[in-house]
Here is the input.
Amino acid sequence: VRVVESGGGLVQPGGSLRLACVVSGLADFKWTGMGWARRVPGKELEWVSGIYMDGSAYYADDAKFRFTISRDNTKNAVYLQMNSLKPEDTAVYYCATDWAYGSSPNPRLGSWGQGTQVTVSS
Here is the structure.
């Protein structure tokens, strides 16, 4: 299974970015919960958002009302639209398979991408 993220970059506070994640080699993608996690410098890996096969979504408190997760099962893709970005959103963002609500992010479980850097700075 290969997971590839894209869409990170440098953005000013208040700006937006759309992250994309494409998964290959996973035949049952449409049945798989998908998650976005991030690692903020100096902090533990945390889930930002997750989405089940039926489109039901979870957001960390800090991401609610600013981030929107979506998926396209025809493309084996998951997206994270991030609006109203803050400097504290600066992190490496990872896409992962086998996300489930209440789980802890663990790169040893499921398949993870290499991450995409998001930097929010003026």
